[in-house]
Amino acid sequence: MTDAIKSGHEILDDFFYKIDEIEGVEGEVALLLKSLYQQGKLTHTNLSNELLKIREVKLRGKD
Fold this sequence. Notes:
Helices cover 68% and strands 0% of the residues. By secondary structure, it is an all-alpha fold. α2 packs antiparallel against α3. It starts with 7 loop residues before the first helix and ends with a helix.
């Protein structure tokens, strides 16, 4: 047991660093989450607004 115990912050850093490699996670959403996290702006409001923008762009493309 030589592995150090990671802090919550380290676990989150690892998760968001690798989020775009997780199977089933859409690339655009992964990059959005990573970006908001790195900027310190990962809040419910910011996430909701950015996801809405992505959804609107995709819906416009289907018309």
